[in-house]
Design a protein that fits this description.
2 copies of one chain form a homodimer. With 302 residues, chain A is an alpha+beta fold. Chain A has 10 helices and 14 strands. In chain A, the strands form 4 sheets. Chain A has a 7-stranded mixed beta sheet with strand order 3-8-9-14-12-11-10. In chain A, helix 2 (32-48) packs across helix 9. In chain A, 45% of the residues are buried. Chains A and B meet through strand 2, helix 2, strand 3, strand 4 and helix 3 of A and strand 2, helix 2, strand 3, strand 4 and helix 3 of B.
C-alpha cells in the first residue's frame, strides 16, 4: 500500500483549512497558512533570482482574445482553454435571463463571446510586448500570474485555477540555451534544498487527439520540455512542480520578435506551479509548517 | 481647463511602465513599481487591521457557476458578468476549430458553457463557507481576490480585471452596523493619511436597465452602499477607491447563514480597489514614488 493518495491529501488539506472547497472541482479557496507558505516560497525564488536583472511584470487572469488566437494554443490544447462570454442583451432579454436562472434552466444561449479569454499559460500575455528588436543580451522577464485550465479533477494538484511564478527568456539560441541550463539546475536546487525528493525529466505536454500524441513524442525527442517532479499524490506518477518550455522561434515568428542581426528571436519559459510546490511541501513535511525541519523553515523564513 | 484627464493618466502610466498595454481595453499588465506600491498599500491595510482577528482567505479568479447563479448577481448586473466557455468536441470538431481560428473566423459556436464563471465580486466565493450557525460575535474574513467586470473602457480606472482587498462581516445587525461605522472611518483615515483628498459618500451600484435605476435610488435612500472617493481622472466625478456594501439578510437567506438565536445572519463587505488606490497615489503624488512626500513613504514603507 502506497502512502500516497489524492483523496487523503485533499481531505488533509481541507481538514487543516489549507484549502476551502467552493463546490466545483479544481476551484477552491486558500487558507492563511497555505498563502503564507506560498508567499515564502515566492520570496525565496526572488532572493535566488535577485541578481539576474529580470524585468518584473504582472498580468491579470484574463487576456486579449486576439493574442490568444495568434498564439496557436487552440491547435494543441483546445480542451484546456476558457473563453469569456457575457450578456449583451436588452431589458426584454434580461427578463428572460432572470427567469431562466431562477428556474434553474440553461442560459448559455443568452451569452456572447467577448474580446477576452482566460490566460492559458502564464507567459502568453508578455509576448506581444516584445515585438521589435531585442537588445544584444536578450530580455528576461519575471512574473506571477493566474492561469486557467479547463480540467476539473478530484486531484488537489490538478486545478482549474492556479498561480505560476514564471520567467521568460528572449534572445539568440545561445542565450536561451545557456539560461535553460542554468535554471534547470537552479530549479532542482531550490526544491531539493527544501528537503523534497525532486527529480528532473524530459516531458511532453497533453496535446489534444491522436495527432497530439505524435506531437508529444516529437516534443520529447527534441527535448523541448523539461519538468521537475516530486511525488505528491503518487510515487509512480510524481507531480510536475516546475516546467520548462523551449519554444524555439514559435513566439518570435508570431509576435515579430527579432534579434539584432535581423533573425527571429527564440524564446523559452520556466514556471513554478505555486500551489503544487506548497502541496508538495505539506505532503513531504506535514500539515503544520511549525513542525517542518529547521533547515527548511530557515530557507523559507530567513 | 481641468488638470484631470483619463487619457493623460493612461499615457503617463504607460510611459513610466507602470502599466503595460496588452491590446484590449481594461486589461493591461502591471509594471514593477506599480506592483511594489500595491503590495505596500496591501501591507499597510494589514497592519491597520492586524488586531481585528479576521480569518484570512484567498480565492481564485474563477467561481462555481452554481454559487454565482444563487447569488442573484445576474438580476442586477447581467452586463458585467463573465461566464467561462470551453471546447468539448471531438477531433473532427477540433479540425474545424483550428481552421476557423486560423482563417480569422468566428469560433464561438464551438464553445459550451462550463461549470465556472469569473468572480464578479471579491466576497462571493466566501459566502457558501458560512452556511450554518455563526459564533456569537459573528465572523470576519479578510481576502484579496481578482474580480472581473465586463466593461471595457479607455479610462485606466475602469478595468475588466482588478484586485480587491476585501473584508466581510457576518453576524447580527448590531455587529454588522458597528463594524461598518468602524471601517468607514478607518477606510477614510487610511486614504487621507496617505495625503489624498478622499471623501466618503452614499452611493448606488450600476444596476441594469430602467428598473435598475429605481433599485439604485432605493439603495441610496436606504444607505446600503457607501464609497470613499478620490479625484483621479476627474474632479467632478471622483473615483471610488473603497466601497462598502450592506446586504442585510440577502446572502444569509441564500446561503442559509444563521445567528445563534436562529434568525438569518446579516452580512456586509468593504473592499479597496487596489489598482485604483495605486493610480490615485500616482495621480496625487506623481509617477515616481521616490519623490513622494516623506510622510506618505513612511506609511507605505515603514
Amino acid at each position: 500500500m502506497s502512502e500516497y493518495s489524492a483523496q487523503k491529501l485533499y481531505d488533509d488539506l481541507v481538514k487543516h483549512r489549507h484549502i476551502i472547497p467552493v463546490g466545483v472541482q479544481g476551484i477552491f479557496g486558500r487558507g492563511p497558512v497555505f498563502e503564507n507558505v506560498l508567499r515564502a516560497f515566492d520570496d525565496l525564488v526572488s532572493r535566488v533570482a535577485a541578481d539576474d536583472g529580470a524585468e518584473k511584470m504582472m498580468f491579470p487572469p484574463t487576456l486579449d482574445r486576439k493574442v490568444f488566437e495568434k498564439s496557436e494554443f487552440l491547435d494543441s490544447f483546445p480542451q484546456l482553454a476558457g473563453a469569456v462570454f457575457s450578456f449583451y442583451g436588452n431589458e426584454g432579454q434580461h427578463a428572460q435571463l432572470r427567469e431562466r436562472v431562477h428556474a434553474g434552466e440553461r442560459w448559455d444561449d443568452l451569452q456572447k463571446m467577448t474580446d477576452v479569454v482566460l490566460t492559458p499559460a502564464a507567459c502568453y500575455p508578455a509576448y506581444p510586448s516584445f515585438t521589435g528588436i531585442v537588445p544584444p543580451k536578450g530580455r528576461m522577464v519575471d512574473m506571477q500570474n493566474w492561469v486557467f485550465r479547463h480540467e476539473p479533477s478530484p486531484e488537489p494538484t490538478r486545478m482549474q485555477a492556479f498561480r505560476v511564478r514564471e520567467f521568460i527568456r528572449v534572445g539568440t539560441g545561445d542565450v536561451v540555451v545557456e539560461w535553460r541550463d542554468m535554471w534547470l539546475k537552479r530549479g532542482l536546487d531550490i526544491l531539493t534544498g527544501l528537503g523534497m525528493p525532486a527529480k528532473s525529466d524530459v516531458a511532453n505536454a497533453p496535446f489534444f487527439g491522436r495527432g497530439g500524441r505524435m506531437l508529444g513524442a516529437d516534443q520529447r525527442e527534441q527535448k523541448l520540455k523539461f519538468e521537475v517532479l516530486i511525488p505528491v499524490i503518487s510515487e509512480e506518477n510524481p507531480t510536475a512542480v516546475c516546467s520548462f518550455n523551449y519554444h524555439h522561434e514559435h513566439f518570435g515568428q508570431i509576435f515579430d520578435i527579432k534579434t539584432e542581426d535581423g533573425s527571429i528571436a527564440q524564446t523559452a519559459c520556466l514556471g513554478f506551479g505555486m500551489e503544487r510546490v506548497v502541496m508538495a511541501l505539506f505532503k513531504t513535511h506535514g500539515m503544520d509548517p511549525g513542525s517542518w525541519p529547521k533547515t527548511v523553515r530557515d530557507k523559507l523564513w530567513p
